[in-house]
Amino acid sequence: MQVSDWDDLLGTAAAEVLETMFFTAAYPLAEPAESTAGPRVAAHLDFAGTPAGALTLSVSEPAVRVLAANFLAPDEDGPVPASQLGSVVCELANMICGALLSHVNSDALFCLSSPELLPDGAAPPPGRPTRSLTLGEEMEGDAEDGAIDLWLALEPHAG
Amino acid sequence: MAFRVLIVDDSPVMRTFIRRIIALSGMEAAELLEASNGLEALNLLQTQWVDVVLTDINMPVMDGAELMRRLAADETLKTLPVVVVSTDGTAHRVEQMLGLGARGYVKKPFQPETLREELERVLGGAYAS
Known about the structure:
Helix content of chain A: 25-40%
Number of helices of chain A: 3
Structural class of chain A: alpha+beta
Order of helices and strands of chain B: EHEHEHEHEH
Helix content of chain B: 25-40%
Distance between the termini of chain B: 8 Å
CATH architecture of chain B: 3-Layer(aba) Sandwich
Radius of gyration of chain A: 15 Å
Largest interface: A-B, 29 and 23 residues
Oligomer: heterodimer
CATH superfamily of chain B: Response regulator
Low-confidence stretches of chain B: none
CATH class of chain B: Alpha Beta
Number of strands of chain A: 7
Mean pLDDT of chain B: 90
Distance between the termini of chain A: 5 Å
Strand order of the largest sheet of chain B: 2-1-3-4-5
Largest sheet of chain B: 5 strands, parallel
């Protein structure tokens, strides 16, 4: 499988998870974002198998609030507590990775690590994201407010 | 008819999401219990009866596969229906968990109605409103 196929599947898997579990339409950008500025919530997980690799997810803080509200449907009293935003991003990363690997090869056995929340201000992986998506209609303000960026790293023997 | 569901997942937000989906499914009469790993679930099942267990696989302390083995080895719990809810939808993993005795398998991401249908199937449909 070509690397570009993985990249395409990553975008597909992310959009599928966002639509199905977060009731949110997300639109893959034709080109990955050039910058990932602004407040972010990010998570990382590794997976073992053939191939092995790692996935990093970085979501703008305004987008996390939208996703968390859709996912958890909190009481009308207020927004999702800040303490839960990181958990939502970790779960999103977990599901995107699982969906990606299920698409890639349904006969293989993969093991996913538990997603880890990256500390505030942690540098993103080097280079531009593998895939970038944006939340469209639900976001107000700048386009960057809806940013969702994904970095996929595969071990070299991926075929 | 009221029924009792034990949700086993190390992610509190996923447990909340599953609670929400079950409520949305029209099964509001359900009583929902929670555990954050297999060992916690086993301890809870020593004192509380449930009609079905929904469990993740990848959890700290005791994962879903070991939970299945422990349930199968327990005379009083071996007939308890278990549905796996996991991000891992690979054929190998599904086969493994069904081989350990899981009655159903729901792959994340899932449509809300998929979880409802699986619960109805496992519970025999009598519990659905």
